[in-house]
Design goal:
With 264 residues, the protein is of the alpha/beta class. It has two domains: 9-132 and 177-260, Vaccinia Virus protein VP39 (Rossmann fold, 3-Layer(aba) Sandwich); 136-173, no CATH class. The protein has helices at residues 15-20, 49-63, 79-91, 145-154, 181-184, 202-212, 228-235, 247-260; strands at residues 9-12, 27-32, 67-77, 95-103, 119-126, 156-158, 161-163, 175-177, 218-221, 239-244. The strands form two sheets. An eight-stranded mixed β-sheet has the order 1-10-9-2-3-5-4-8, with helices on both faces. Strands 6-7 form a two-stranded antiparallel sheet. Strand 6 (156-158) and strand 7 form a beta hairpin. Helix 2 (49-63) crosses helix 3 (79-91) and helix 7 runs parallel beside helix 8. The longest helix has 15 residues, at 49-63. It is globular, with a radius of gyration of 20 Å. The model has no long low-confidence stretch (mean pLDDT 93). It binds S-adenosylmethionine (SAM). S-adenosylmethionine (SAM) binds at residues 14-15, 33-35, 43, 196, 198-200, 223, 225-226, 228, 244-246, 249.
Length: 264
């Protein structure tokens, strides 16, 4: 395990400083929710699109050597930015697994010249084909309950074989419906401040960690914000290395870690 950066702590460090302190090939799973250049905060604002992509590709290049050969990488961003990030990862020899669409179930913007935005992208890449993928741990309920109830007793004939539904639900698809933290925190329809512009829903990060790591594995997040990845990792018995450049967010994340973690 890594020797230079304390595990299971949230560090107040710039992403490059943090990644510099992580040994090569020790990270089993990286869950990375970086700036999107949407000007939602000072840390999310870049002078030009080129500056944004220079920054993005630099942290990706600093992160990739830290991933274990069987490791997995998830990167959040807008669909537009993700199209460029995908190309960069492919050029670096990473293996594309999924383009996950997160339907945020939030109020949409007031676009009048195009469709309103209500989604974000999560790119899922691995280093090779031997990555962990615990599909049984992230099954979701079947949609057509009538048909499934019928199939439970009698089965459904498929290609000459009788198929019975899995009691734990169907395999998880690549369109995810999770209400945004902003939406969940609304009171009587009004948005309330969360103290951070873009925290991610804890249940969504838990899905990623359950699927792409095992107990005792090391999870990395170098843009930790309010500490959602650290909390999910700890709850699920994984180790974590997390950091954010903002002392304010790091304090918030450390407090959340104290108050929200009940190990399962
Ligand atoms: C999209 S937010 C992450 C939110 C987080 N996933 C959560 O659930 O709270 C991105 C975070 O990156 C941090 N950040 C921006 N630039 C950074 C840098 N160069 N090094 C480290 N952190 C940075 C910001 O302070 C911000 O908290």
């Amino acid at each position: 395990m890594n020797t230079r950066l304390k595990v299971n702590e949230i560090h107040c460090l710039d992403c490059f400083e943090l990644l510099n302190l992580v040994d090569d090939s020790v990270v089993d799973l990286a869950v990375v929710d970086p700036p999107y250049n949407l000007k939602k905060a000072e840390w999310d604002s870049f002078a030009t699109e080129q500056d944004f992509f220079d920054f993005t590709f630099s942290w990706i290049d600093a992160l990739l050597p830290k991933l274990h050969d069987d490791g997995s990488l998830y990167i959040f961003n807008t669909p537009y930015n993700s199209a460029f990030i995908l190309q960069h990862l492919v050029a670096r020899g990473m293996l594309f697994q999924n383009w996950i669409t997160w339907d945020k179930r939030d109020g949409m913007g007031g676009a009048r010249r195009r469709y309103s935005n209500g989604q974000e992208t999560i790119l899922f890449f691995t280093k090779n084909k031997h990555h962990t993928f615990n599909y049984d741990d992230i099954r979701v309920p079947y949609q057509s309950t009538n048909r499934i109830n019928h199939a439970k007793t009698k089965g459904i004939l498929k290609n000459g074989k009788r198929w019975f539904p899995n009691p734990n639900g169907r395999l998880c698809g690549e369109v995810w419906h999770y209400s945004s933290a902003r939406h969940k925190n609304k009171l009587n329809g009004r948005v309330r401040s969360l103290g951070h512009a873009t925290p991610k829903p804890l249940d969504m990060i838990e899905r990623i960690i359950k699927a792409s790591s095992n107990k005792g594995d090391l999870v990395l997040d170098c843009f930790a914000g309010t500490g959602t990845t650290a909390i999910a990792a700890k709850r699920l018995g994984r180790n974590f290395m997390c950091g954010d450049q903002s002392a304010e967010y790091v304090n918030m994340a450390r407090e959340r870690l104290q108050s929200e973690v009940v190990e399962s």
